[in-house]
Write a structure and sequence with these properties.
alpha+beta, 3 helices
Length: 96
């Protein structure tokens, strides 16, 4: 992957993610399915100008859902749990 902005898709705002951010200085983001840990680390460091200590990735399969007779599948996703170095801070929502 050449473009840094194609690696990082969006931040994930969940209750578990906010607890991780407050207690362990970790952030959750959704990343491209083909991205590896090294690419995710370099993209976060370049875009947000923070130092990353560790990256853990999680592949999640989409759930099968039905609505009446129709059946469909939600898309597969890849998430990354990014541990920032001590003293670093990253806030996606400023002033909230």
């Amino acid at each position: 992957m050449t473009n840094l902005y194609s690696i990082i898709k969006k931040p994930l705002f969940t209750e578990k993610g906010s607890n991780l951010k407050e207690s362990e200085n970790k952030i959750l983001v959704e990343v491209a399915k083909g991205a590896n840990k090294i690419e995710v680390k370099s993209a976060i460091e370049e875009i947000f100008k923070v130092k990353v200590e560790k990256v853990a990735t999680i592949n999640t399969n989409g759930k099968w859902k039905r609505q009446g007779k129709s059946i469909g599948k939600r898309p597969d996703r890849k998430k990354a749990v990014i541990t920032l170095k001590k003293g670093e801070k990253l806030d996606f929502v400023e002033g909230a």
